[in-house]
Automatic annotation (TrEMBL):
It is a multi-pass membrane protein. GO terms for molecular function: pheromone receptor activity. The chain crosses the membrane at residues 12-33, 40-58, 129-148, 188-205, 234-260, 266-285. InterPro entries: GPCR_Rhodpsn_7TM (IPR017452), Vmron_rcpt_1 (IPR004072). GO terms for biological process: response to pheromone; sensory perception of chemical stimulus. Keywords: Cell membrane, Disulfide bond, G-protein coupled receptor, Membrane, Pheromone response, Receptor, Transducer, Transmembrane, Transmembrane helix. GO terms for cellular component: plasma membrane. The keyword Disulfide bond applies. It comes from the Eukaryota. This is Vomeronasal type-1 receptor. It is found in: Cell membrane.
Length: 304
C-alpha cells in the first residue's frame, strides 16, 4: 500500500511536470505559428508537444489514479479508449521525432545539395505526412480494443494487490505476431530514417565546426546561424528519444524472459514509457532561447 502511494505520488508529480512543460512549448509555438513566421519545424514541434501531452494523459494519469487504488473509474470502454490512444500516441512520438530530424537535416543542408530540393516550401506541406502518421499508427493499433478489459470485470485474484487498471485478454497468436511485426517494422523503419538523417546532420555540423575554427584562427567574427543551433537541439532530442526507447526495450525484454520480475522493473518500465514525453519539452526550453523570449511576450500580449 505504501509503495503504491509513493508510486502514485511520483507519477502524479512527473505527469504534471511533463504536461506543464509540453503545454508551454505547445502554446509558445502556436503563438509563433500564428505570426508571419510559419516554419515547418514549428508545426512539427507543435505536433510533438501535443503527442507528448496525449501520452501523459493516457499513460501517466490512469497509472497515477490506479496507484492510489481507484481502479473502478475506468470501465471496459474507458480502458479500450485509454490504452488505444496511448499506443497510437507512442507511435506518433517516433514518427514525429523522425520527421523532425529529417526536416532539420534538409534545412541545414547546402543550397546546392540535392536534399535541399526536398525542403517543404511551407509548413502546410507537412500536413499530409502528419495525417499519414495518424492513419498508420491508428491501423497498427486497431487490434487492441478487442483484447482489453478493465481489471474489475475479470475474475482473477492476481489483480487484488495490483495497481494495474486494464487487462489484456490472451489473443490469437497469429494476430498477435502480425501486429507485433508491424510495430517492429514501423519502429525499425522510422529509426533507420532517423539515424540516417542524424548522421547527415553530424557530418554537416562537423563541417560547420571546422569552418568556425578556420574563421577563429583568421580572427574573423562569425555568428552561428539559428539553423545550426536548432540542428544541435534536434540532435539532442533524437538522442533523448533513443535513450528512453532502448532502455524501455531492455527492461521489457528482461521482464518478458523473467529476468526482472519485481515491482522495481515494472515501475522502471512505466517511467521509461513516459520519460521522453517529460524530458523533451524542458530540453527544448533549455536549448531554445526563443521559447524564453516568447514566454515573456505571452505575458504582455494575450491571444485575441
Amino acid at each position: 500500500m505504501a509503495l503504491n502511494f509513493a508510486k502514485g505520488t511520483t507519477f502524479m508529480f512527473l505527469t504534471g511536470l511533463g504536461i506543464a512543460g509540453n503545454t508551454f512549448v505547445l502554446v509558445s509555438y502556436i503563438y509563433v505559428f500564428r505570426g508571419s513566421e510559419k516554419k515547418p519545424i514549428h508545426l512539427i514541434l507543435i505536433h510533438l508537444a501535443f503527442t507528448n501531452i496525449l501520452i501523459l494523459f493516457t499513460k501517466g494519469t490512469p497509472r497515477t489514479i490506479a496507484s492510489f487504488g481507484f481502479r473502478n473509474l475506468l470501465g471496459d470502454v474507458g480502458c479500450k479508449i485509454v490504452v488505444y490512444l496511448e499506443r497510437v500516441a507512442r507511435g506518433l512520438s517516433i514518427c514525429t521525432t523522425s520527421l523532425l530530424t529529417v526536416v532539420q537535416a534538409i534545412t541545414i543542408s547546402p543550397r546546392a545539395s540535392r536534399w535541399r530540393r526536398l525542403e517543404p516550401r511551407s509548413a502546410w506541406h507537412l500536413l499530409p505526412l502528419l495525417l499519414f502518421c495518424w492513419i498508420l499508427n491508428s491501423l497498427i493499433s486497431m487490434n487492441l480494443p478487442f483484447f482489453i478489459k478493465n481489471t474489475n470485470s475479470v475474475n482473477t485474484s492476481e489483480f487484488s494487490e495490483s495497481d494495474n487498471y486494464c487487462y489484456f485478454i490472451p489473443e490469437n497468436w497469429i494476430i498477435r505476431w502480425i501486429f507485433t511485426g508491424l510495430m517492429v517494422f514501423r519502429d525499425a523503419g522510422f529509426q533507420g530514417v532517423m539515424g540516417g538523417a542524424s548522421g547527415y546532420m553530424v557530418f554537416l555540423l562537423h563541417k560547420h565546426h571546422q569552418h568556425v575554427l578556420y574563421l577563429q584562427t583568421s580572427k574573423l567574427l562569425y555568428r552561428t546561424p539559428p539553423e545550426v543551433k536548432a540542428a544541435k537541439s534536434v540532435f539532442l532530442l533524437m538522442l533523448c528519444f533513443l535513450f528512453f526507447y532502448w532502455a524501455d526495450c531492455f527492461v521489457s525484454f528482461c521482464s518478458f524472459f523473467s529476468l526482472l520480475q519485481d515491482c522495481v522493473s515494472g515501475s522502471a518500465h512505466e517511467f521509461l514509457t513516459i520519460g521522453y514525453a517529460i524530458v523533451s519539452p524542458f530540453l527544448l526550453i533549455h536549448r531554445d532561447g526563443y521559447l524564453v523570449e516568447k514566454r515573456k511576450t505571452l505575458r504582455n500580449y494575450p491571444f485575441q
